[in-house]
Queue: 4 jobs
Job 1
Amino acid sequence: MDIEKTLSQMTLEEKATITSGYGPWATPAIDRLDIPKVTMSDGPHGMRAMKEEGTADLRESLPATCFPTAACFGSSWDIQLAASIGEAIAEEARELGYNLVLGPGMNIKRTPLCGRNFEYISEDPVLTGEMAGAFVEGSQSKGVGATIKHFACNNSEFERMSLNVQVDERPLRELYLAAFERVIRRARPWAVMGAYNRVNGEFACEHPRLLSEILKGEWLFEGLVMSDWTAVNDRVSAIAAGLDLEMPGPSDANDRRLAEAVRAGELDESVLDERVRRVLYVADLAGKSGINTAQRPAHPDPETLTRHHALARRAAAQSTVLLKNEGDLLPFEPTSTSRLAVIGRFAETPRFQGGGSSKVNAARTETVCSALGISGEPEGVHSDSRPQVYEHAEYAPGYDEHGHADARHIDGAVRAARAADAALLVVGLPDAVESEGFDRSDLELPEGQTELIRAVVAEQPRTAVIIVAGSVVRVEEWIDEVPAVALAGLGGQAGGGAIVDVVTGEVAPSGRLTETMVRRLEDSAAWLNYPGENGAVHYGEGLFVGYRWHDESGVAPRYPFGHGISYSRFEYGALSLSAGGSDGRGGRSEESESGEGAESGPSIAMRDTDALSLRVPVRNAGSRSAAEVVQLYIEPPKGRLRRPRRELKAFSKLHLAPGTEGVAEFSLSRRDFACFDPGFGEWISESGEYRVHIGSTSADIRRRATIDFESTVEPRRALNEWSPMREWLEDERGRRLFSEAIGEQLIDHLSGGRPAEREMFLNIPLKKVPQLTGGRVSEEAIAGMLDGLAASP
Ligand code: BGC
């Protein structure tokens, strides 16, 4: 499409129309100008294509593969896996006739109570950005655009359509926008979805700073910004602010208002043109993708569905986080365990996704029971029957469909556990608790589940508990009594099969926590500033969200961010570093003496213009195929700005056969050492000694290194009359001006003296010096210094 030519042929009315939806799931086509429509559908975990075009009934969608939810596949820390899920959802989108997928969701998990945490990836922006970026690349490699959402600060569902999020610049930039920025710069998504909430007073979809200055201006986003569904309150303001498309449509009254605003001179037509260009840009991409948007098959191809079911099972198994495994209780290998008690209704009536717009009409479901080849199938749910995995396996529901366990349920469960060699107990949250549109009220498991767990493990010491939930649940009352516990998350339609793969030992779990598992709700970072009051929430914890808070406060979590164990063991070799050129090659290099025992590790000097590459060999020293997630954290030196003790900057997942070795390779550059300084409005990386920590979890650090980092551009705060004397005296020119004005002797006198007096003097602003020195420094001298400063700023 010749976008400029097409634009020049459009009428004002057509421009207004094309910047709002045609029904709930498309942009309008304009046949006269050969502009194709762009079709779109939720969502992030699988296609939610409507049976009838133009309807929006959440319960009426075509069957499709339901992949593990973002919270679940995020726990895999596996970039390739995220890309494969993006590709697979795109394949189904193509077959069903859709151009754009409304996902992935990538808001930061600020509180474990957010009802939509199951739809988000992590509390950390690097992990979120890397995984979401891979998903976007996977999807777009198939010609289907991705829509990253919800931009920005939709970190809870409480009053989401009006809540005013009050957030400071640093957490905004370093946490809440950082993940979006990463994806925009690296993966070039076709679209961004604006959030419902307000950010510092303005609605996210009517926010000039977020949409025009930052997203399009600074990050050079070239795609389409659409609103969340009904998030536009004032279309003219939204268009003026930088929103390109109001969803859903039709929005005739707003289209008319928009055209009138242009006619009345309230909105420059060139601004509207800019928005239309972006709709045309995506329409052009959609047109070129070869997707037949007119076709409406009843479901994706059966062969596609079979392949994707296998991917969904592999993904969920890879994402399972083994929290503890005393005495190597798991796996329960069928060769050594012949009688297994399978307890928990979710093993038979599975809970595998969350509620709301991401809900997929799963093409099939595989439950723990069906994957084990034992009965207990709910009526009407298709699943394939398999040969029995264990010689004897008995199922007991343990709790009702709401997750509640009473004495009768518990007795049945205990009986089954007693008769077995081992018990597999599936617990978790029911459907009604985790959904878009509202938050959870606590972190508790449903009534009676704690008693159920304790009763079963008291009877059967070989009990493994599997938790099915989209976010953190409180485990304090029972976890010390249970030898093996895994978090399966909401694993999608094959989640039951994935649990079986992990329990039987077919797959060694390799998921890692993406969200700190707190001991109690009160320990979470946002506790005092959630949910907000009088229409606003203040992100008072600032930068200290998730592990950043626990590291800083010393409040121990139950399990830290990045935690997860394997059935295997991994040995780390010597860490080597090299810094130089922009790719880190051809420069200086350092290798640690020996891997083990090198407490402080190697060190290397680098400048902010260099790239730093790091390599660490890792060997699977166990006897099973398994995967290790190597995590790299940076600890900054103490500087002018308060910074979290350490932050995740890179990670690498290595899949290794027993006895084999792989190499985790990382490349870091200036930005990885930087933080956002609102004083300058830019990312700064101060010179100093940075420590690198590389480990298997955030608490199991295996290798360390020291980076002597030199900044070639160290921005300095401009001096003015309010700058404290410390800054005046530390600044070469400031000191010279002061010395010229009052003489070195007086400076020595004022800044000498007893330590307390000296500190007090260094803390006072220049302006107050005459008053506080009893006239020894005159007003004129100070005025002269300020003139000198102004003469050569
Ligand atoms: C959700 C979006 C979703 C949209 C369309 C909204 O309620 O917040 O994530 O894409 O509906 O279903």
Job 2
Amino acid sequence: MCRIATVEVATLTGFDRVMAYRFDRDDHGHVLAETKRDDLEPFLGLHYPAGDIPAQARRLYVISPLRLIPDVGYTPAALVAAAAEGARARAPLDLSLSVLRSVSPIHVQYLGNMGVRASLSISLVNGGRLWGMIICHHYSPRFVPYELRAAAELLAQTLSAQVATREQADLAELRAAAQKTLGRVAQALSSSDDATSILARERETMLSVVTASSAAVRSKGVWTRLGDAPSTEELASLPEDVLRGDPQGIVFTDALGRVFPPSEAWRDRASGLLSMELSADGEELLVFFRPEEVRHVDWAGDPDKSSSVDADGRLSPRGSFAVWRETVRGRSLPWEPWQLEAAADLRRRLTAQAMRRSADLAAQNATLERSVVERTADLTAARDELTRHGEELTRSNAELERFAYVASHDLQEPLRMVVSYVQLLSRRYRGKLDSDADEFIAFAVDGAKRMQTLINDLLAYSRVGKGDLVLSQIDLAQVFATVEQNLAVAITDAEAVVTQDALPTVTGNAAELGQVLQNLISNGLKFRGQAPARVHVSARRRETEWVIEVRDEGIGIAPEQVGRIFIVFQRLHTRTEIAGSGIGLAISRKIIERRGGRLWVSSTPGGGSSFFFSLPDAPRT
Ligand code: ADP
């Protein structure tokens, strides 16, 4: 396109050399296309430093697109200001848009240094910006008439419009491609959780969003690398102001070595850097890298010598245009505007995702906290309820025990009186009243005696646990001997054989243990059935306790009755069958449990019973 334009302009104007010239982003420029007289040295591809066309000249080229110097050797004519009075008249006249005005003497000298005698330049303006120029040089004076100038200008405008359209189309294409890639990232975002994992999974996609060769994520102070990114030590050495600080959250450079010289050592991997902040505090970062792109630039003369100050102190343009080749190092391909747009878009998506995630987390946390609070409240309520119940139970138990004790204790005296007087009645009046009266009195005596037994038993039961538990080392064999003595009559009556194994020394209370043993052995004698009773007492060690067994070969107990026999006054037999009040086992269990042991039974109806009780070495006191 530009090449055609130069041919057209060359035909129109007849100039020796017509160049299409384009400004780079940093205002340097280079020759894009050229049409020239065959014998002339080509300028195509040459670069000209920004200083060759100063900023004010570039501004002028935007508003006044055509400039013709028919002969650089012209003699400028002085402009005579009207001799008007007042400050306004003295102000310099703005000749920016004047076609015939003289050009800067430096420019004239610049052209002269190149051997140029006539020049014509037409601006290529794109979106209000000086995109490039058509520059025509002639090596002898040359005037271009107005019509031809106008035609050349029209041509330049057409070219500008085409350039704009082409650039927009290219940009639209690049943007569309970036959007497509971003779409894939968005898809990945919906299924994944954070930048690090997306980066790992969607490696190519992420890198292609901004056309980077490698990347790294910094999360909670830890760097995760992707591709041939700088090492974690190198990453950690990057100063914070290289990585962040822009209000938009994205910083970039295509010459990292300039802003952070130590990175020169790894310029092959990271000459270009684009860093985006992913969290509000800037701690989470996603950084893209581009490798060094070594470029050779052919300058039309040493770019550092665009102009110099001559001996008279006047600024003069370069004198030499000999091609000067520069090798540009430590630079990556530049981050193009559309790539920066894509980066901003990517950053928006990633931060939105992070915010969504933290919002989700916050919501989850809140729910969790709420349920913990609720549960805790429930538990506290339940615990309070339990404590209250426990306290109530202890209180009512204590009250009951007090009642049982007081009742049985206080009833003893009047009952003794009833028993004595009924017995007196029986003795004194037996046979003196009618036979019914004798029988009734006998019933009364019997009932009163039974009541006395019950009350005594109850009192005994109530007494267990009253007072301090006095424990000492007890020789169970001795306790057994005493019990055997106490039961001597019963043993003889039952024609029983009571035997024992070696019995241990245990921690306990002799009187209480004697009571338990006596209860169990006497039950063995009582519930013997037809055969003579056989009772055997043994002991075995189990972990940290002794287990004592009192085994008989008596009538046994039905399994469904086992639960009842330990309850106060519960009996499985009538009094007439077998004597007793049903308190023995209740008292025995209370005694054993009070010192931290257990009392239980294993029995088969008709097959005898084994009563066991455990005595822990370290009793609960
Ligand atoms: P008592 O012996 O005064 O009846 P206990 O509390 O000692 O009271 O026993 C409760 C009940 O348990 C007894 O009435 C009896 O029915 C049953 N029982 C106790 N020991 C034995 C045993 N060795 N064999 C069979 N039944 C027993």
Job 3
Amino acid sequence: MENGSRTEQIELGIVSDAKVGDWVLYATDRAVRRIDEIEAREIIELLEDNYQPVDIKALPLKYKRIIYKIRTEGQKNRKTEELKKNEIENFRTNSNKKNDKLSTTGYSILTNSDLEYLLNLKGSNNLEALYSEANVMRKDRLEDFVCIHGIIEFSNFCKNNCLYCGIRADAKINRYRMSEVEIFRAAKFAVEQEGYKLIVLQSGEDYSYSDNDLIKIIRKIKEHLRVFIFISMGERSKRFYRAAFEGGASGSLFRFETSNPKLYRKMHPGHSLDERLRSLRDQIEIGYYIASGGLIGLPGQTISDLADDLLLVRKLGIPMLSAGPWIESAQSPLSKIKDQKSKIKNIEGDFDQSSDLLPTDYSLLSNDDRLRLTLNYIAAARLLMPEIKIPVTTALETLDPASGRHKGLLAGANALMFNITPEKYRADYNLYDHKYIEREKVWQKYGLFKGEESYEMLEERLQI
Ligand code: 5AD
């Protein structure tokens, strides 16, 4: 059996009658179904890269040092993985720990300055070297495992006024709220008709659904459908998170947005990073499979902040990164920066620029530069945390609708998000402008398999 240029031993799984020379679609070393050659080439194209060998000699010295460090110390680190796990465990359970000093020692071979360097990298030769290094790491650690999430955005009501967000409380938009029946129907369609094995239930912070309402929905889905449920509903109480977990939610998509406490306070009026991290730790402690991370390129954020975000993900031992570029929304006060080219301090009066926060002119960056920063971030994350799961976010696809997804995967990402919100509501869930909503049929065709087998594969892979 062939897999592109490689020939590998795989378990035949459910395609037990396959013969040598047949093309089979397989996931996690197990065959899923037989396919024809045209289909096989189509799949190979999705993940295969066309990186040319990069002339290492031509790369800057600092870059060579970092790569050397990853390659050599990375090997050593594999051996001390157990040790590190203990450290992470201690950190997680030590809830008395006052603040999150982002110390890099003991958690990472890459320092803030190394990461900063990678995030800033430009030039086609350098970038190709960076992405191919990350892509090789992905293949080495995760093979071609691509996880597919379906996201149901069930309400765009929100009590919060986050400065960057298009569905903030003050936004003048069409609001909708799906009923329990509609949510269940959307989940049922996704699971039974389309083969989704992992769905995310996302909304603004909408307390018109009581804790019990939400738990009831989770229970109902779990009772009737063979699917993993991730929730993304904001900062509810620890009691809610525990009950939802017991009701059948196994994952939580909960970003800390930024690890810089000052920036956090500015972006989230009335809220603090401490609160956010407390909730995140509660969820970790309860046992949720966590997807977390931050926004990339918030006005006022520095490259060093982004490096700290990655180090925080690492330090918390988060198994799945959720991070995407900030994109303007006409509904959010931050978008005025671009229009007026004004200083950040003019936004919403109290949004003053503290002296130790270097303003970035990110909001004035071209689309290409934003795309580069996001891809560099994905690659840096992969190199820092070889086994982390990284979904390509919708925001990245919005920056580059034609090939953002492919580029994300080739820069080290290994998971995809599809929007499965019912058509009639989809256009109203606009976290930012021009949100990418087209679905790529080819992934649906090959990435989703019906049947128990693929549910078990996911269970095994994510260990949930
Ligand atoms: N651009 C990109 N991402 C955004 N989010 C909210 N607003 C924007 C925006 N303008 C992200 C936040 C939140 C997630 C659900 O959507 O990071 O956690």
Job 4
Amino acid sequence: MILELASTTPSDVMRRVVADLEVDEGLTAWPIRLRGRLFVIVSGDESRVPDRVLNQPGVTWSSTSERGYWLVDAQHDVVGDTVTVGSSVVGGKSFWLGAGPCALERVDDAVATAAEVAAQDADAFRIGLWKPRTSPYNFQGRGAAAFDDLERVRAAAGLPIVSEVLDPRDVERAATSFDCLQIGTRNMTNQALLVEVGRTAKPVLLKRGLRSTIDEWLRAAEYVVAQGNDRVILCARGIASFDTSLRHQPDLSAILTVRRHSSLPVIFDPSHATGRLDAVARFALAAASAGADGLLVEAHVRPDEMYRPGDAAQAYPPTGLKALREKCRVVRDLTSELDAGVAAS
Ligand code: PEP
Ligand code: MN
């Protein structure tokens, strides 16, 4: 359940409301402020919330039992439709581009890739320190040991850094370095991690879980926003399918569906969605047509040098990024034109 209190509610009154809710051992409550509005998030059995709280003057309440999300629901107009990453904007009129290698491996390659990605006018540089791997025998990323090298890469890129965090214990440190905290597909349902990134002031790039429904994805976004961080960017990245001819099944319809339910910006990762270089541009354009606000693309100057097994087969040449983004913009605008024509007829 969500309570909304007048934004001018004195803090002692707000604290009393929270205390009154937590008298019941089954309820947990905490206040958050979003865009000038004051909410108390109540977690637990809604039927146990006492009437004296619900009927208090100045308090309005909304049930969250039906959908499991409320703050990210476009109908409630709480979250916006743009999120800033560094000085770039995701959502609205821009067609955003984040690109870079899978992992920070050899520093020279990362620096060269960063410089080229920046020369292509990308908005952000993506690179992993911690890598989620299916097998414990594969390269796990250089982790916290690579923070110093990341600074060299950052200097070469001059771009905000988007990087994945796997462990709630690393979030505080990561938030001092990364400009955007990525939650990977395997961690979309890691609620402890979602809560932790929700407690930071950094934008969160939330990938869709491989086997998660769109409702579950939006509930994961709600976990972050319910901690007071409304800077969530959704990222579709393909889902598991019975057919494995591509790495995953690009889930372009998810972009459309998310748009219907939430105003949060949604981007697409054509690299992890397909796993193939020859599919990246095709599905990037398809995502632009489906209404994506931008792309997250894996790019590397020397894919042959990448650690194996890894994502070399999908690494896009950074020199092609500018054209890719330009063509995506054109396709997005063409689709909007067609939509406007239909709406006007
Ligand atoms: C990544 O972007 O490097 C990554 C591991 O992506 P995903 O979580 O979508 O597999
Ligand atoms: Mn990768």
